[in-house]
Amino acid sequence: MSGVEEKLAGLGLKLPEVAAPLASYVPAVRTGSYVYTSGQLPLVEGTLGVIGKVGAEVTPEEAKELARICALNALAAVKSVVGDLDKIARVVKVVGFVASAPDFTGQPGVVNGASELVGEVLGDAGVHARSAVGVAVLPLDAPVEVEIQVEIANQ
C-alpha cells in the first residue's frame, strides 16, 4: 500500500474501483508529466446516492461530503494510469462543478470537500489552484462533479 493510500486508510477511506465512463471518454489521461482526470461524480460502488440541486434538495454540508467522494474517485482515476499515488509530485488544479439552486452562492465551500481531501492525503503536494463553478444541472442529476490535474514526479 502506498503512503497516500495509508493516509486514506487512516481517514477511514479506501480507493474505489474506477467508475466506468458514462459516454465516449476515459477516466484519466496522462500526457508527459501530467494526468488529467475526467469529471468524477460522487459515485459509491457505481451508485449515485444523492441527486438534486445544492441549496434546494441537497444541503451544502451534504454536497461538501459528495465533493470529497468525487476527489477520492479522481485519485482512483489517477492511480489507474500511473499505478501508484506516491508518484504525485503535486496537484496542479481542482475544478468543481456544483449543480446549484438559482440563489445558491456557496460553491467554494462545497468544493472545499475535494480540496481538503487532497490536502489531507498529499500534504504540501496537495496545495493547488482551483475553480468552483455553479451550473444548472450535471450528469445523472448529480449535485457535484470534480476533476483534478496532477503532476507526476520524474522517476
Structure, described:
The protein is of the alpha+beta class and 155 residues long. It has helices at residues 3-10, 60-82, 107-122, and strands at 28-31, 34-37, 43-44, 47-48, 88-99, 129-135, 144-152. A 5-stranded mixed β-sheet has the order 1-2-7-5-6, with helices on one face. A two-stranded antiparallel ribbon has the order 3-4. Strand 1 and strand 2 form a beta hairpin. Helix 2 (60-82) packs across helix 3. The chain is globular. The mean pLDDT is 96.
Give the overall average pLDDT.
96
Per DSSP, the total helix count is: 3
Order of strands across the main sheet: 1-2-7-5-6
Cα separation of the termini: 19 Å
Alpha carbon gyration radius: 15 Å
Task: Give the number of DSSP strands.
Answer: 7
- Assign an overall shape: globular
Major sheet attributes = 5 strands, mixed
Low-confidence stretches: none
Structural class computed from helices and strand pairing: alpha+beta
What is the ordering of alpha helices and beta strands?
Answer: HEEEEHEHEE
Proportion of residues in extended strands: 25-35%
The helix content, as a percent range, equals 25-40%
